[in-house]
Amino acid sequence: MSARVVAAGTNGVNVATGLPVLDHLLTLLARSGRFELSLELPPGEAEAEVDEAGRSLGEAFAPLLRSSGAPGHGSAVLPAQEALAQVALEASPTPLLASNVDLSAARVGGLHSDLAARFLESLARAAGLTLHVRLIDGEDSQHVLEAIFKALGVALSKACGR
């Protein structure tokens, strides 16, 4: 398992988690934030893969968020179709996820959408982030997740000083 993030990269994205919907969401995150991203996981249980992807990506972002010249905080509001999401984050010694999004009953691409919350929690813990996610508008679960991950990419980009 490996994860690599380059803040000033060429926007190359190579994501292989074994979960196509997570691959899609992470690709949106990288492209929206203009990061070069490489993340490969061995196949396994969906819950374990989601946790590992969040942890690995968080560990890759942690040094970028704390590098010289990086503000360590960022926010963004982005749409995906009818959905509109806001993400605000800050490098913090007390990581946490605060969210008003409840997709516990939804499934997107065969993935229980509450696994997205697990991913975000793992990412916040491993990167050392206070991470706020707000759904401003949206009904379609896939569009909601796409808006969240796009906003997350832009917020991370700002926090890394891009």
What distance separates the N and C termini? Answer: 27 Å
Give the count of helical stretches: 4
Specify the CATH class: Alpha Beta
Q: At the third CATH level, what is the topology name?
A: Ribosomal Protein S5, domain 2
Order of helices and strands: EEHEHEEEEEHEH
Instruction: Calculate Rg over CA atoms.
Output: 14 Å
Q: Give the averaged pLDDT, no decimals.
A: 89
**Annotated CATH homologous superfamily:** Imidazole glycerol phosphate dehydratase, domain 1
Strand content: 25-35%
CATH architecture: 2-Layer Sandwich
Q: What can you tell me about this protein's structure?
A:
The protein is of the alpha/beta class and 162 residues long. The protein has a single domain, classed as 2-Layer Sandwich (Ribosomal Protein S5, domain 2), CATH 3.30.230.40. It is 41% helix and 30% strand. The protein has 4 helices and 9 strands. It has helices at 20-33, 46-65, 114-127, 141-159; strands at residues 2-6, 13-16, 36-40, 73-80, 83-91, 96-99, 107-108, 111-112, 129-137. The strands form 3 sheets. The protein has a 4-stranded mixed sheet. Strands 1-3-2 form a 3-stranded mixed sheet, covered by helices on one side. Strand 2 (13-16), helix 1 and strand 3 form a beta-alpha-beta unit. The longest helix has 20 residues, at 46-65.
Please outline what is shown here:
By secondary structure, the chain is of the alpha/beta class.
What layout of secondary structure does this protein have?
Elements: E1 2-6, E2 13-16, H1 20-33, E3 36-40, H2 46-65, E4 73-80, E5 83-91, E6 96-99, E7 107-108, E8 111-112, H3 114-127, E9 129-137, H4 141-159
Helix pairs in contact: 1-4, 2-3
